[in-house]
User: Which sequence fits this backbone?
């Protein structure tokens, strides 16, 4: 398949940790504006895949292209982020000594150089944007709270809010609903679907009702490569998928 | 824009620090130069220079707190930048001696005549001008810090490893400056200064002037540091301290942020050293000793890491204690210092200022702990990341 029109193009990507193959000849493509759910057993390499896309881990082999041309395997984390790839971590990581507002302000799309941040004065548009995100993530009443004092679910929402503030072209969202109540899970699904209109999103999640609520194409990873791909119903009917993942 | 920057950092704590410094700047000169010697309110010239010395250490501590408290870089070599600034000033003061040295050579400092040197080494050129020396006070420590940081941060050396190489840096400089053929006076260092800017360096007026210059430098550095902390850049720095990789994934080039704070901090330390030398009258390689840098870390820990004001308080209090102990019970000082560090680490992880914040938070009308130490690292992160 040609890489030209794709937003993200992974071909034959492999990563080993001390001889253990976390990613094994993984190939995957994403089109602009697409939302994709990734499922698979623990240790399948889902998080590692996000690590190689965002520059945290260097692949041993393989090609990773962004927008059909930029080779991500050569770039550092900050450059990749500035291309427009944002990430939410499996274990929510927010800036705990900062307020909710400051967390969003730090994530907000704006020049990233030290000189620019030293002289940064928040503009009216930036303020409105943060207010917006506070509303969307229902964190408005907690804007002045230190992020470290939020509950697990609220941290998840804050991190999603930070992703929104970054306004990336591609969002990598690792287990966004872990630790959330059913109602919160439903809200998160709705939120991600809203986002998906303007952005491309990859969501990793174990929660099947959440994946169903997203209603998007699903890729099943196992042992570092793609096992099956298609609608949730079709992959759920796949015997191999049932054997390694769903049937357990 | 500059005013906005300084105003940003002006919170209650900054107001208090600046008020105390302003009071000192008014009271000390009056009590020294105007109040007659017999009066109980008189402050001796000796005391003025002692206070000045404490404030130079306070500036070093402030510089250290900027990188340790807010960026998580535990430097065990900050005294190196202090000493380099001190040497730059010392070289100027040596050139000011002129023909009044023991050997009467109008160009060469005594130690060079003694070593049979015929002419001034190239790196001494220009130090007969105050302006040149003043620039070097900033440039030499700054450039060294920049080069060091460039390599260390880009190779992602952090934590204990980074601390160890900062210690190695100051130790290497210690050995280098001990050598006579380096041209910095070997283990005797630079001393016997006569004049600064044409004023007799021993005169009470000059001493008070140096004291005032130190207060001004400390106040300005404090304002710069707290302005930075309050800015978005400061928030990035604190984020880097606690979760550097997360900051990278937001698109910030964390190396350049660390490099900025680190270089600025080294320049501040250089200024502190430059003000220290004329007030104590000597600079020698012992300032590069690893123990000097470690002492500075203790000052910051005692006062409260990540609070700026705490660094100043800690430096002044510990050095006051040191002056007292080395006079009264000299053999106990090192034990007292070590014990103090252990006690603070165990019982006051946020230092004296943290204790103060805790106490005031209990009062009914206090604003709560967030008002003061909002960005202060908590005890746990201090243990995990800092040490
Ligand atoms: N830095 C690392 N060093 C060594 N092994 C690693 C590293 N990162 C991941 N692994 C291993 O690679 C495999 C894939 O891990 P990964 O985190 O990608 O799985 P995952 O699909 O995200 O699983 P989960 O659903 O539990 O989050 C695991 O066996 C893990 O132990
Ligand atoms: Mg994972």
Assistant:
């Amino acid at each position: 398949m040609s890489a030209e029109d794709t937003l993200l193009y992974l071909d034959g990507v492999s990563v080993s940790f001390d001889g253990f193959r976390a990613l094994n000849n993984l190939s995957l493509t994403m089109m602009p504006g697409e939302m994709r759910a990734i499922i698979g057993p623990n240790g399948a390499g889902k998080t590692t895949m996000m690590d190689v896309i965002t520059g945290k881990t260097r692949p041993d082999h393989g090609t990773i292209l962004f927008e059909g041309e930029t080779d991500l395997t050569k770039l550092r984390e900050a450059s990749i982020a500035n291309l427009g790839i944002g990430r939410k971590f499996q274990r929510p990581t927010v800036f705990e000594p900062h307020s909710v507002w400051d967390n969003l302000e730090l994530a907000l799309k704006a020049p990233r150089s030290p000189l620019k941040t030293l002289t940064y004065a928040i503009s009216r548009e930036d303020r409105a944007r943060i207010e917006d995100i506070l509303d969307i993530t229902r964190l408005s009443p907690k804007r002045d709270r230190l992020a470290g004092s939020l509950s697990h679910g609220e941290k998840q929402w804050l991190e999603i809010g930070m992703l929104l503030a970054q306004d990336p072209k591609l969002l990598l969202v690792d287990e966004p609903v872990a630790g959330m109540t059913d109602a919160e899970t439903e809200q998160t699904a709705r939120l991600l679907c809203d986002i998906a209109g303007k952005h491309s999103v990859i969501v990793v999640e174990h929660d099947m009702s959440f994946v169903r609520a997203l209603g998007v194409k699903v890729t099943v990873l196992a042992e570092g490569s793609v096992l099956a791909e298609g609608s949730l119903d079709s992959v759920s009917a796949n015997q191999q998928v049932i054997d390694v993942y769903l049937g357990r | 824009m500059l005013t906005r920057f300084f105003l940003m950092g002006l919170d209650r704590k900054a107001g208090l620090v600046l008020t105390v410094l302003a009071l000192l700047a008014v009271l000390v000169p009056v009590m020294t130069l105007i109040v007659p010697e017999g009066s109980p309110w008189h402050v001796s010239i000796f005391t003025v220079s002692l206070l000045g010395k404490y404030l130079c250490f306070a500036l070093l501590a402030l510089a250290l707190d900027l990188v340790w408290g807010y960026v998580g870089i535990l430097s065990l070599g900050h005294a190196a930048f202090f000493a380099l600034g001190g040497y730059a000033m010392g070289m100027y003061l040596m050139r000011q001696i002129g023909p009044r040295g023991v050997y009467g050579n109008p160009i060469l400092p005594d130690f060079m005549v003694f070593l049979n040197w015929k002419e001034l080494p190239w790196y001494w050129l220009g130090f007969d001008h105050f302006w040149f020396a003043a620039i070097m006070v900033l440039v030499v420590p700054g450039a060294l810090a920049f080069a060091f940081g460039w390599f260390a941060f880009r190779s992602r050396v952090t934590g204990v490893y980074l601390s160890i190489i900062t210690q190695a840096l100051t130790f290497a400089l210690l050995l280098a400056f001990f050598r006579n053929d380096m041209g910095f006076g070997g283990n005797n260092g630079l001393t016997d200064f006569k004049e600064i800017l044409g004023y007799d360096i021993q005169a009470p007026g000059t001493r008070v002037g140096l004291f005032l210059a130190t207060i001004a430098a400390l106040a300005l550095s404090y304002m710069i540091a707290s302005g930075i902390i309050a800015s978005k850049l400061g928030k990035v720095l604190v984020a880097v301290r606690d979760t550097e990789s997360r900051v990278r994934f937001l698109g910030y080039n964390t190396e350049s942020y660390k490099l900025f704070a680190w270089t600025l901090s080294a320049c501040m330390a250089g200024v502190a050293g430059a003000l220290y030398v004329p007030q104590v009258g000597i600079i020698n390689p012992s300032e590069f000793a690893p123990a000097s840098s470690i002492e500075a870390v203790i000052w910051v820990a005692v006062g409260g890491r990540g609070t700026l004001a705490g660094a100043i308080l800690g430096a002044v209090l510990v050095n006051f204690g040191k002056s007292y102990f080395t006079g009264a019970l000299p053999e106990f000082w090192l034990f007292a210092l070590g014990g103090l560090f252990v006690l603070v680490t165990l019982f006051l992880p946020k230092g004296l200022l943290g204790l103060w914040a805790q106490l005031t938070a209990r009062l009914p009308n206090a604003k709560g702990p967030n008002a003061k130490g909002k960005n202060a690292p908590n005890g746990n992160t201090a243990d995990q990341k800092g040490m």
User: Anything to note?
Assistant: Chain A touches chain B at residues 54, 56, 76-78, 81-82, 86-87, 89, 93, 95-98, 102, 105-107, 112-114, 117-121, 146, 162, 166 (CB under 8 Å). Residues 28 and 94 of chain A are 29 Å apart (CA to CA). The two ends of chain A are 34 Å apart (CA to CA). Residues 152-166 of chain A form the longest helix (15 residues).
